[in-house]
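Quick look at the format.
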Amino acid sequence: MSFTILLQNLLNGLSIGSVYAIFALGYTLVFSILGIINFAHGAIFTLGAYFTYALMGQAFGTNGLLALAALPIQLPFVLAMILGGILTGFVSLAIERIAFRPLRRRGADPLLTVVSSLGVAVVIVNVIQYLVGAEIYTFPAETYGSLPDAVNFGSDQAPIPIRSVQIVIFGVSGFILAVLVYLINATKFGKAMKAVAEDATTASLLGIDSDRFIVGTFFLSGFLGGIAGTLVASSVGIAGPYFGISFGLKGLAVIVLGGLGSISGTVLGGLLIGLIEAFVPGEYSAYKDAVAFSILFLMLLIRPQGLLRRKLIQKV
């Protein structure tokens, strides 16, 4: 492998890996608080892409209840992405209110909550298909303004072209990760969130409103999922209502690789899987998902606690 291809794959891997990381952090935040996996997170990913597409004033296709419909506004991509993320955050709050809170207050088995979130995911996907059909939607060519199609990281004699969208995705993802790390480690909200994750009962006795921080965690999780969906869709398009399902499964691989409930482990896991996928030879690109889940299988066999999570010790 030449140095040019090596560097190109490295930059592409970091780009997609950073998106995997911010998407999988949505899983991690909810798991760290409630100890359960929110399987509706993949549907949130899909919604974020559709929301941003609509807020940019783009028309839908010829199928579905909203055939050929378009909003009377045309927001810039960045503003549309942020508002789309906020909308998915509110959808995530609705999911918490409908599918999680009633079962949590009844002390139901966590497995029932997992099944409930799966049901919500199926409903969201089917509602999307009913409204806008199963067509593929691509973002407009001017999404990123006047940026060139690619940036050359090499020389004229040995070019190393990287798509501008990949660079933007990496920059946005890195900024979001930095803000999230600061929020969790350096603010009262983050410290209270970690206290609730450690022991919700003790946190309540110390005056922390656990329900309020659970709600905040779900909103943040939904926001991250929506942003991740938009970033991926701006690069490859929206491949129908089931667009987020494969990413949802890959997000599970990321959090298992990094360690369930570990934020730093999730970031590391996302970057690693992105880099590994980038180095899969082109003729085997159809098997990239198999590579991710092979890693998941091996990790469960060799180190089930993940890369950066200590083995839990139960005291009796």
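Next, a different chain entirely:
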Amino acid sequence: MRTFVHGAAVWDVACPQRRSRVAGVTMAGFRVRDLDALRMVPHPAVTLLLDFGAGSPVLDYAAGRQQRGSVVAGPGLGSGGAVWARGENVECVQVRLSPLIARAVLGVSPADLDGAVVALDDLWGRETSRIRQQLGEVSSWEERFALTDALLARRHEAGSPLDPEVAWAWNRIVGSRGLARVDGLATEVGWSRKRLWSRFRSQIGLPPKRAAKLVRFDHAAHRLVAGEGPAQVAVEVGYADQSHLHRDVMEFTGATPATVAGEPFLVVDDIAWPSPETPGEPSRL
């Protein structure tokens, strides 16, 4: 376990020593004594939060709603800067699920979440209480990761896969870091545009153009965190100009590129979600 310190934020962060047995699953463990107003920055994965500590994470919405405890949210959680996390004595396992496997693991399509944060109890019922109890009873993070992985593998095996054409289109978008010609994807898979858009939206949770936009934003945001200037990022990530990058960052986060570059949610990624890929190669979500 490593300690992450960024300004007033102090978190203990644990990473699994072994990869998940399910491709498309990544995990990290967090212990935070005082989590104060953390902006949730959109990410192109389904977020699964398994809470088991004495405290409880709270997600606050700009509209005034709240959600506590174990939750799940589709790709793009926090768009527009609309969701903030806080809490005391928070202990949790956070899972990032590729949209390619999310439907099988969750038992519902990400599209059925309708862009909202949903209590995991509402999806999994008593299974949520069982995993919460099990996570709290063991003493090590590796045991917690193993329990979580076993649960996800069991659910994934029992679930149904996506259409191969949809999976192919998603991998094209991710592999190009959001720069694939989305209008040409339907032709490449031999479907009508309407059919691909409908199947992609229903199975991934976003329409193809929005998915590509989110993947490109995520790549740009992490380059900003790495210290690259907005002008350089705009050119190299595929934006028309720096103003275009600024608009996209504001749309997804409600903040400027300079502010996003220092967001703890992103800065902690190098510790919590170390990339196994060769530097410069896109990750597969």
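Residues 277-284 have pLDDT under 50 and may be disordered.

See the schema section for token definitions.
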